[in-house]
Amino acid sequence: MDIKSIIIGLILSSTLACAxxxxxxxxxxxxxxxxxxLNIPWGFxxxxxxxxxxxxxxxxxxxxxxxxxxxxxxxPEIYVRGQGGLLDIILHPDYKENNWVYLSYASSEGxxxxxxxxxARAQLKDHSLTNLQVLYKASPNTTKGQHFGSRFAFDDDGxxxxxxxxxxxxxENPQDITRDGGKIYRLNADGSIPEDxxxxxxxxxxxxxxxxxxxxxxxxxxxxxxxxLWTHEHGPKGGDEINIIxxxxxxxxxxxxxxxxxxxxxxxxxxxxxxxxxxxxYWDPSIAPSGMAFxxxxxxxxxxxxxxxxxxxxxxxxxxxLKDNKVIKEERLLDGLGRVRSVEQGPDGFIYVGIExxxxxxxxxx
Length: 366
Hints:
- By secondary structure, this protein is mostly beta strands.
- It has 2 helices and 24 strands.
- Strand 10 (152-154) and strand 11 (160-164) form a beta hairpin.
- 43% of the residues are buried.
Protein backbone atom coordinates (compact mmCIF):
# COMPACT_ATOMS: atom_id res chain seq x y z
CA MET A 1 0.00 0.00 0.00
CA ASP A 2 1.42 3.40 -0.97
CA ILE A 3 1.76 6.28 1.47
CA LYS A 4 -1.16 8.18 -0.11
CA SER A 5 -3.53 5.25 0.52
CA ILE A 6 -2.33 4.96 4.12
CA ILE A 7 -2.95 8.67 4.75
CA ILE A 8 -6.44 8.53 3.17
CA GLY A 9 -7.25 5.47 5.27
CA LEU A 10 -6.13 7.19 8.46
CA ILE A 11 -8.21 10.27 7.64
CA LEU A 12 -11.30 8.17 6.92
CA SER A 13 -10.95 6.08 10.07
CA SER A 14 -10.39 9.21 12.16
CA THR A 15 -13.45 10.88 10.62
CA LEU A 16 -15.61 7.84 11.26
CA ALA A 17 -14.37 7.56 14.83
CA CYS A 18 -15.21 11.20 15.49
CA ALA A 19 -18.71 10.70 14.09
CA UNK A 20 -19.58 7.76 16.32
CA UNK A 21 -22.46 8.21 18.73
CA UNK A 22 -21.46 8.12 22.38
CA UNK A 23 -24.76 7.09 23.95
CA UNK A 24 -24.78 3.72 25.74
CA UNK A 25 -27.06 0.90 24.67
CA UNK A 26 -29.91 0.03 27.05
CA UNK A 27 -30.55 -3.73 27.08
CA UNK A 28 -33.75 -3.60 29.15
CA UNK A 29 -35.98 -3.22 26.11
CA UNK A 30 -37.42 -5.24 23.28
CA UNK A 31 -40.19 -4.73 20.76
CA UNK A 32 -43.15 -6.24 19.00
CA UNK A 33 -43.88 -5.47 15.34
CA UNK A 34 -47.43 -4.14 15.14
CA UNK A 35 -47.54 -2.95 11.51
CA UNK A 36 -45.10 -4.59 9.11
CA UNK A 37 -43.84 -3.75 5.63
CA LEU A 38 -43.81 0.04 5.68
CA ASN A 39 -41.28 2.11 3.77
CA ILE A 40 -41.12 5.56 5.42
CA PRO A 41 -43.87 5.82 8.07
CA TRP A 42 -43.44 9.57 8.46
CA GLY A 43 -46.35 10.00 10.87
CA PHE A 44 -49.15 8.05 12.49
CA UNK A 45 -52.00 8.57 14.89
CA UNK A 46 -54.60 6.47 16.70
CA UNK A 47 -58.31 6.59 15.98
CA UNK A 48 -60.85 6.24 18.82
CA UNK A 49 -61.26 2.50 18.08
CA UNK A 50 -57.45 2.11 18.53
CA UNK A 51 -56.89 1.52 14.82
CA UNK A 52 -54.20 3.64 13.17
CA UNK A 53 -53.80 6.15 10.37
CA UNK A 54 -50.29 6.05 8.91
CA UNK A 55 -48.66 8.37 6.40
CA UNK A 56 -46.18 6.95 3.92
CA UNK A 57 -43.88 9.72 2.68
CA UNK A 58 -44.39 8.49 -0.89
CA UNK A 59 -47.98 9.75 -0.74
CA UNK A 60 -50.16 6.98 0.69
CA UNK A 61 -52.43 7.26 3.71
CA UNK A 62 -53.04 3.88 5.33
CA UNK A 63 -55.73 2.75 7.75
CA UNK A 64 -54.50 -0.19 9.81
CA UNK A 65 -57.11 -2.20 11.68
CA UNK A 66 -57.21 -5.81 12.86
CA UNK A 67 -54.03 -6.63 10.99
CA UNK A 68 -55.26 -5.22 7.67
CA UNK A 69 -54.01 -2.18 5.76
CA UNK A 70 -56.45 -0.19 3.65
CA UNK A 71 -55.49 2.81 1.51
CA UNK A 72 -57.49 5.98 2.19
CA UNK A 73 -58.66 7.83 -0.93
CA UNK A 74 -59.22 11.55 -1.36
CA UNK A 75 -55.71 12.81 -0.67
CA PRO A 76 -54.63 16.06 -2.31
CA GLU A 77 -51.87 15.94 -4.91
CA ILE A 78 -48.58 15.35 -3.11
CA TYR A 79 -45.27 16.86 -4.27
CA VAL A 80 -42.73 14.11 -3.62
CA ARG A 81 -39.16 15.36 -3.82
CA GLY A 82 -36.18 14.85 -1.55
CA GLN A 83 -37.41 15.14 2.03
CA GLY A 84 -40.86 16.25 0.86
CA GLY A 85 -43.98 14.15 0.46
CA LEU A 86 -46.85 13.16 2.72
CA LEU A 87 -45.63 14.09 6.18
CA ASP A 88 -47.39 14.31 9.56
CA ILE A 89 -50.93 13.50 10.67
CA ILE A 90 -52.96 14.38 13.76
CA LEU A 91 -56.60 14.22 14.84
CA HIS A 92 -58.63 17.17 16.06
CA PRO A 93 -58.98 16.94 19.88
CA ASP A 94 -62.75 16.56 19.36
CA TYR A 95 -62.39 14.06 16.53
CA LYS A 96 -65.20 11.88 17.87
CA GLU A 97 -67.60 14.75 17.25
CA ASN A 98 -66.22 16.28 14.04
CA ASN A 99 -64.05 13.67 12.23
CA TRP A 100 -61.36 16.24 11.33
CA VAL A 101 -57.98 14.82 10.34
CA TYR A 102 -55.03 17.19 9.81
CA LEU A 103 -52.27 16.45 7.29
CA SER A 104 -48.99 18.12 6.45
CA TYR A 105 -47.52 17.53 3.02
CA ALA A 106 -45.49 19.10 0.26
CA SER A 107 -47.60 20.73 -2.44
CA SER A 108 -46.78 22.36 -5.78
CA GLU A 109 -49.92 24.54 -5.73
CA GLY A 110 -49.31 28.21 -6.35
CA UNK A 111 -46.76 30.18 -8.33
CA UNK A 112 -43.17 29.14 -9.09
CA UNK A 113 -41.95 25.62 -9.78
CA UNK A 114 -41.29 23.12 -7.05
CA UNK A 115 -43.26 22.91 -3.84
CA UNK A 116 -43.54 23.86 -0.20
CA UNK A 117 -45.09 22.65 3.04
CA UNK A 118 -48.87 22.72 3.24
CA UNK A 119 -51.34 22.12 6.07
CA ALA A 120 -54.82 20.80 5.33
CA ARG A 121 -57.69 19.18 7.12
CA ALA A 122 -60.33 16.75 5.89
CA GLN A 123 -63.07 14.61 7.36
CA LEU A 124 -62.66 10.86 7.34
CA LYS A 125 -65.67 8.90 6.19
CA ASP A 126 -65.42 5.18 5.59
CA HIS A 127 -62.09 4.94 3.75
CA SER A 128 -62.12 8.34 2.08
CA LEU A 129 -61.17 11.93 2.94
CA THR A 130 -63.93 14.43 2.23
CA ASN A 131 -64.32 18.20 2.57
CA LEU A 132 -60.58 18.82 2.15
CA GLN A 133 -59.58 22.33 3.25
CA VAL A 134 -56.12 23.82 2.83
CA LEU A 135 -55.41 25.81 5.99
CA TYR A 136 -51.89 27.06 5.23
CA LYS A 137 -49.55 26.92 2.26
CA ALA A 138 -45.97 28.11 2.77
CA SER A 139 -44.44 30.12 -0.05
CA PRO A 140 -42.61 30.52 -2.29
CA ASN A 141 -42.37 27.16 -4.00
CA THR A 142 -38.84 25.90 -4.57
CA THR A 143 -37.36 22.86 -6.26
CA LYS A 144 -34.96 22.36 -3.35
CA GLY A 145 -35.54 18.99 -1.75
CA GLN A 146 -34.67 19.71 1.86
CA HIS A 147 -36.17 21.04 5.08
CA PHE A 148 -39.95 20.85 4.77
CA GLY A 149 -40.47 20.34 8.54
CA SER A 150 -43.18 19.35 9.49
CA ARG A 151 -44.69 18.13 12.76
CA PHE A 152 -48.01 18.82 14.46
CA ALA A 153 -49.24 19.37 18.00
CA PHE A 154 -52.52 20.55 19.51
CA ASP A 155 -52.41 22.31 22.88
CA ASP A 156 -55.00 22.27 25.65
CA ASP A 157 -56.70 25.37 24.24
CA GLY A 158 -57.21 23.74 20.85
CA UNK A 159 -54.53 25.68 18.98
CA UNK A 160 -52.74 23.82 16.19
CA UNK A 161 -48.95 24.13 15.99
CA UNK A 162 -46.86 23.04 13.04
CA UNK A 163 -43.33 23.49 11.74
CA UNK A 164 -41.89 24.43 8.36
CA UNK A 165 -38.16 24.03 7.79
CA UNK A 166 -36.03 26.70 6.17
CA UNK A 167 -36.39 24.94 2.76
CA UNK A 168 -32.65 25.15 2.17
CA UNK A 169 -32.69 28.96 2.18
CA UNK A 170 -30.64 29.40 5.34
CA UNK A 171 -29.63 33.01 4.89
CA GLU A 172 -33.05 34.51 4.12
CA ASN A 173 -35.98 32.57 5.55
CA PRO A 174 -35.40 31.76 9.25
CA GLN A 175 -34.65 35.29 10.50
CA ASP A 176 -37.27 37.12 8.40
CA ILE A 177 -40.83 37.10 9.78
CA THR A 178 -42.16 38.36 6.44
CA ARG A 179 -41.09 35.06 4.87
CA ASP A 180 -42.18 31.48 5.42
CA GLY A 181 -39.66 28.83 6.38
CA GLY A 182 -37.64 28.15 9.50
CA LYS A 183 -40.64 28.80 11.73
CA ILE A 184 -43.09 27.30 14.20
CA TYR A 185 -46.67 28.38 13.38
CA ARG A 186 -49.92 28.53 15.36
CA LEU A 187 -53.42 28.45 13.94
CA ASN A 188 -56.92 28.05 15.23
CA ALA A 189 -58.31 24.65 14.36
CA ASP A 190 -60.24 26.11 11.41
CA GLY A 191 -57.09 27.70 9.96
CA SER A 192 -57.78 31.24 11.10
CA ILE A 193 -55.10 33.28 12.88
CA PRO A 194 -55.32 33.53 16.69
CA GLU A 195 -55.80 37.13 17.77
CA ASP A 196 -52.91 36.96 20.23
CA UNK A 197 -50.32 35.47 17.88
CA UNK A 198 -47.08 37.38 18.49
CA UNK A 199 -46.77 39.08 15.09
CA UNK A 200 -50.38 39.92 14.21
CA UNK A 201 -49.64 43.65 14.44
CA UNK A 202 -46.27 43.57 12.66
CA UNK A 203 -46.36 45.12 9.20
CA UNK A 204 -45.73 42.53 6.49
CA UNK A 205 -45.32 39.67 8.91
CA UNK A 206 -46.65 36.17 8.30
CA UNK A 207 -49.16 36.36 11.14
CA UNK A 208 -49.36 32.60 11.64
CA UNK A 209 -45.75 32.60 12.91
CA UNK A 210 -45.35 31.68 16.56
CA UNK A 211 -41.51 31.49 16.77
CA UNK A 212 -38.67 31.83 14.29
CA UNK A 213 -34.98 31.17 13.73
CA UNK A 214 -35.40 27.41 13.24
CA UNK A 215 -33.66 25.11 10.77
CA UNK A 216 -35.74 21.96 10.23
CA UNK A 217 -37.98 20.91 13.13
CA UNK A 218 -39.16 17.30 12.78
CA UNK A 219 -40.16 16.68 16.38
CA UNK A 220 -42.94 18.40 18.32
CA UNK A 221 -44.90 17.46 21.43
CA UNK A 222 -46.62 18.92 24.49
CA UNK A 223 -44.92 18.28 27.84
CA UNK A 224 -47.30 16.13 29.90
CA UNK A 225 -46.88 18.21 33.08
CA UNK A 226 -45.84 21.76 32.19
CA UNK A 227 -47.99 21.67 29.01
CA UNK A 228 -45.27 23.64 27.21
CA LEU A 229 -44.52 23.04 23.54
CA TRP A 230 -41.26 21.14 23.01
CA THR A 231 -39.59 20.74 19.64
CA HIS A 232 -36.37 19.42 18.22
CA GLU A 233 -34.71 20.32 14.97
CA HIS A 234 -31.97 19.14 12.67
CA GLY A 235 -28.82 21.18 12.91
CA PRO A 236 -25.99 21.16 10.41
CA LYS A 237 -22.97 18.98 11.30
CA GLY A 238 -23.34 19.00 15.08
CA GLY A 239 -25.96 21.19 16.67
CA ASP A 240 -29.24 19.28 16.48
CA GLU A 241 -31.34 20.95 19.17
CA ILE A 242 -34.18 20.53 21.65
CA ASN A 243 -36.09 23.75 22.32
CA ILE A 244 -38.99 24.82 24.52
CA ILE A 245 -41.03 27.14 22.34
CA UNK A 246 -42.15 30.54 23.60
CA UNK A 247 -44.27 32.98 21.58
CA UNK A 248 -42.41 35.50 19.45
CA UNK A 249 -38.96 34.24 20.38
CA UNK A 250 -35.98 33.91 18.04
CA UNK A 251 -34.17 30.57 18.23
CA UNK A 252 -31.12 31.85 16.44
CA UNK A 253 -30.65 29.88 13.23
CA UNK A 254 -28.29 30.55 11.47
CA UNK A 255 -26.85 33.44 13.52
CA UNK A 256 -26.00 31.19 16.46
CA UNK A 257 -25.39 27.45 16.33
CA UNK A 258 -23.35 24.71 17.96
CA UNK A 259 -22.80 23.17 14.51
CA UNK A 260 -20.62 23.68 11.45
CA UNK A 261 -21.07 23.16 7.72
CA UNK A 262 -21.12 19.54 6.56
CA UNK A 263 -17.63 19.98 5.08
CA UNK A 264 -16.37 21.16 8.47
CA UNK A 265 -16.10 24.89 7.82
CA UNK A 266 -17.74 27.45 10.08
CA UNK A 267 -20.73 29.60 9.08
CA UNK A 268 -20.89 31.36 12.45
CA UNK A 269 -18.44 31.98 15.28
CA UNK A 270 -21.00 32.39 18.05
CA UNK A 271 -23.26 30.03 19.99
CA UNK A 272 -25.20 32.68 21.88
CA UNK A 273 -26.46 36.20 21.34
CA UNK A 274 -28.69 38.56 23.27
CA UNK A 275 -32.30 38.23 22.18
CA UNK A 276 -31.86 34.67 20.94
CA UNK A 277 -32.94 31.56 22.79
CA UNK A 278 -30.55 28.83 23.87
CA UNK A 279 -31.50 25.18 23.26
CA UNK A 280 -32.05 23.10 26.36
CA UNK A 281 -29.93 20.40 24.72
CA TYR A 282 -27.87 19.91 21.59
CA TRP A 283 -26.29 16.85 20.01
CA ASP A 284 -22.71 16.64 18.76
CA PRO A 285 -22.33 14.48 16.77
CA SER A 286 -25.74 15.05 15.25
CA ILE A 287 -28.17 12.17 15.58
CA ALA A 288 -30.55 13.46 12.84
CA PRO A 289 -33.65 13.59 15.08
CA SER A 290 -37.15 12.74 13.87
CA GLY A 291 -40.25 12.06 15.95
CA MET A 292 -40.67 12.97 19.59
CA ALA A 293 -42.80 11.86 22.54
CA PHE A 294 -42.74 11.84 26.31
CA UNK A 295 -43.35 8.66 28.24
CA UNK A 296 -46.43 9.47 30.28
CA UNK A 297 -47.46 6.02 31.41
CA UNK A 298 -47.12 3.43 34.16
CA UNK A 299 -46.13 0.81 31.58
CA UNK A 300 -42.42 1.63 31.79
CA UNK A 301 -41.71 1.96 35.51
CA UNK A 302 -39.17 4.66 36.31
CA UNK A 303 -38.89 5.61 32.64
CA UNK A 304 -42.09 7.60 33.14
CA UNK A 305 -41.37 11.24 32.31
CA UNK A 306 -38.45 10.50 30.00
CA UNK A 307 -38.28 12.05 26.53
CA UNK A 308 -37.97 9.85 23.44
CA UNK A 309 -36.38 11.10 20.21
CA UNK A 310 -35.83 9.05 17.05
CA UNK A 311 -32.41 8.98 15.42
CA UNK A 312 -32.31 8.66 11.65
CA UNK A 313 -28.52 8.73 11.47
CA UNK A 314 -27.65 6.18 14.15
CA UNK A 315 -30.85 4.11 13.89
CA UNK A 316 -32.11 3.97 17.44
CA UNK A 317 -34.63 5.55 19.82
CA UNK A 318 -32.86 8.02 22.09
CA UNK A 319 -34.23 7.94 25.65
CA UNK A 320 -33.42 11.22 27.40
CA UNK A 321 -33.62 11.40 31.19
CA LEU A 322 -34.53 14.93 32.26
CA LYS A 323 -33.93 17.03 35.35
CA ASP A 324 -35.06 20.65 35.54
CA ASN A 325 -35.64 20.69 31.77
CA LYS A 326 -32.09 19.50 31.07
CA VAL A 327 -31.02 16.20 29.53
CA ILE A 328 -28.83 14.49 32.12
CA LYS A 329 -28.61 11.03 30.55
CA GLU A 330 -29.15 9.45 27.13
CA GLU A 331 -29.56 5.76 26.24
CA ARG A 332 -30.14 3.80 23.05
CA LEU A 333 -33.39 1.86 22.79
CA LEU A 334 -34.41 -0.33 19.81
CA ASP A 335 -30.79 -0.13 18.73
CA GLY A 336 -30.06 -0.95 15.10
CA LEU A 337 -33.60 -1.72 13.93
CA GLY A 338 -33.50 1.05 11.32
CA ARG A 339 -33.95 4.78 10.86
CA VAL A 340 -36.45 5.92 13.50
CA ARG A 341 -38.89 8.32 11.85
CA SER A 342 -41.90 8.74 14.17
CA VAL A 343 -42.78 8.22 17.84
CA GLU A 344 -46.17 8.30 19.55
CA GLN A 345 -47.68 7.11 22.83
CA GLY A 346 -50.79 5.07 22.15
CA PRO A 347 -54.10 5.12 24.05
CA ASP A 348 -52.92 2.01 25.91
CA GLY A 349 -49.93 3.88 27.35
CA PHE A 350 -47.40 2.01 25.23
CA ILE A 351 -44.90 3.75 22.99
CA TYR A 352 -45.13 3.05 19.26
CA VAL A 353 -42.26 3.77 16.91
CA GLY A 354 -42.24 4.12 13.12
CA ILE A 355 -39.06 2.63 11.65
CA GLU A 356 -38.13 2.96 8.01
CA UNK A 357 -38.22 -0.24 5.93
CA UNK A 358 -39.63 -2.15 8.90
CA UNK A 359 -42.94 -0.77 10.13
CA UNK A 360 -44.39 0.34 13.45
CA UNK A 361 -43.21 -1.43 16.58
CA UNK A 362 -44.38 -1.37 20.19
CA UNK A 363 -41.65 -0.59 22.72
CA UNK A 364 -41.57 -3.12 25.56
CA UNK A 365 -39.52 -2.85 28.71
CA UNK A 366 -38.08 -6.16 29.81
